[in-house]
Every structure is written in structure tokens, then in C-alpha cells.
Amino acid sequence: MTLLTKAVRPAQRGEFLSLQNVVQNGAVGLGSLMAAHLISGPAGGKIQGSWHLVAQNWTAVTVAFFLIWYLEKRIGRDKLA
Fold it and tell me: How far apart are the first and last CA of the chain?
């Protein structure tokens, strides 16, 4: 969260955070729908397809770490200039 607030000018921070909240809540809802679609199984039986979610989440975490590293490096460089 701190990284994102650094990227916006103080005059626009409130508007940006409101928009971020809308996008974040939409992503949570979409993620829930995707999880419900990917996990399946017969009633009272074994849950199948959970490995899809594990792979998807690890991919997302890896990409997020790379993006955080890149943005922090870029914002830090822009602040020095």
C-alpha cells in the first residue's frame, strides 16, 4: 500500500485510493468466482482441481514480487532526480 501511495501526487491520493479500492474489491470477487469454477468434485466426494489454484497463486505471487521490486526501484530513482 505504501508503494502505491508514493506513486501518486498528494493532491490526487484520495481519488487514487478510492479507485484502487474499487479495483481491489472487484478482483477479490473475480478471484472467488474463478476459484469456484476451478475447484470441482462430486457431492460428498474428494475435491478436485485445487492444484490449478496453487499454480495460479504461486504465479501471481512471483509476478507481484517482481513488480514491487521494479516499482520501488523506479520510484526511488524518480525521487532522486
Answer: 23
- Residue ranges of domains in the chain: 7-39, 49-81
Indicate the pTM of the whole model: 0.52
CA–CA separation, 80 vs 55, rounded Å? 38
**φ/ψ bin of 44: left (φ > 0), alpha (ψ from -120 to 50), beta (otherwise):** left
pLDDT (tens digit, 0 to 9) for every residue of the chain, 81 residues total? Answer: 566 666 677 787 788 788 888 888 998 999 888 888 777 767 777 777 778 778 888 998 999 899 888 888 877 765 555
